[in-house]
Amino acid sequence: MTLELILLSAGKALFMVMFGMNLAVIMTWADRRQGAMINDRVGPNRAVVWLPKRVAQGMVLAPAVLIAAAIVGYVYTHKVEGAPRLGRALLFSQLAVFGLWATLLAIGGRVARSGVKNSFDAWVASIGDPRSFLWLGLGAHAVTLSAAGLLRGTDLGRTLRDVGASAGPAVFAASVIGGAAYAAWSFERVDRVGLRLFGLLHPAADGLKTIWKEDFIPPNADKLLHSLAPIISFFPALVVLAVVPFGDTLCFGSKAGRIDLTQVMRVVPREGLCTEGAVPLQVLDVNVGLLYFFAVAGTGIVGAALAGWASDNKFSLLGGVRAASQMVSYEVTLGLTLVGAMMVYGTLRIDEMVRWQSQNTWGVFVQPLAFVLFLTASIAESKRIPFDLPEGESELVAGYFTEYSGMKFAMFYFSEYVAVVASSVLLAVLFLGGWHLPFIDRSGIHLQIGDTVLFHQTLSHVAVIVIGVLAFIGKVVGICWLNLMIRWTLPRFRYDQLMRLSWRKLLPASLVNILVTGLLMLLVAGASASVQAGLKVAADVTQLVVAVAGLSLGIWFIAFVTSPVKKKRILASTAAQFAAHLGGTRTARMGA
pTM for this structure? Predict the structure, then answer.
């Protein structure tokens, strides 16, 4: 293995480890924040680092200047023509529009909260509701994209292309620097600036605090196994991410039979792929990737069982027995659920499963029952509410990690969130297309229904790879958020209900799914050419449905987040005051 491949493998491993752990940290913060909102208590937004004014201004300005300089320097030193130039124009024109409205929206929100301080603030305030910048920006995105499609190939279209390719990077860089400069100027009237990062410093403070806590081990515990159990529970959930691809193959140039990391292919054809300089965005590319995932993830059962047995505590022992039986039961369902998907995809390689979905349709449309079963079983496998019977505090104190403290407790606690990330990653690549987005392939945007090509726009190879990686991250984050919502929505199961759900409901349903999948595959294999063509059109229609639904959901989410907050509070501390607030109670003369 050459030095370049070693560096690339180390970089990919570092990316997946940092992605999994940082997302788990954010989930920890979001879980506590969401619990604070639901339970009406103080959330994790109290940790703060006070910075001197000049240091805070430098921390804001320096990254903005570096980003702007890097973008402008790269664009004006790497000239492109033809289709790549049009792709660059589209990319940077959209970034410029986004930079302008996002900066004005942030400034408008600050002016609305803090008041007008200068003439620029007065102009921003004169616009009215700061959300106007958002809707104007979304309209500008739609207009520029429509103009690019309608005027494509005309003289005016080529002129707009040249303007977007040349002025777009400059406008985006100016918006980045302008927003940073405004933020730095807003610090001028204070002596120090509080750095909170939306409360993300609180999990960091908790992690730092656990390092210095006492590591307590019960006197009669098995010290070796007691110390080994948290490691066995934590690392398998992180290691399984090695076989999951987070993007399509990255194509470099080659020189003297070696990969040239300084040369990236500008455009990759829609069919075929590079061979000599191909770098799969996957840490470990094995032909039994799915089996490796289950083999390594299954060792987490041993960690919970060892923790319960080695602690010399009957509550811990009962929690360990519960955890082992629960995880073994739902492991069976998890494996059988994916048999139907393996039959459809025809491979155990996870990257090939994603490519099948990109060429046909997402797995959720060909295996809808398996998607629901896998989601349910994965939540139960992570031992989180409503399946947190091994740690039920109302019954077992803290379950199998009752006798753990300090970093050992933190490893058990954190391993649950890492397990949620791992299951969400697998769910995204098996059923939601992984890095794939509708009508985006290796060559760019390709809108096709059946044999009719409605629109095609070539994008640079780097742009396609970046879009794919961001799509993968977005899907995983969305599934993790769904896990958090389920945690705060459903009550805890009884243990008999938990086991009955696995063996009497999910397991038979997964077997039925395998049977139905096999029958349908036989029918499709023997179908006529017209039926095969109809299925291809149906697959393209599902991509169109996903695209429209995704855009609609994005617009709704933006409108929801930016809508004014309306709170209705009932200030009543006793039942009598609460009844009086609602209009009082009905009274009548007591009869004999």
Answer: 0.79
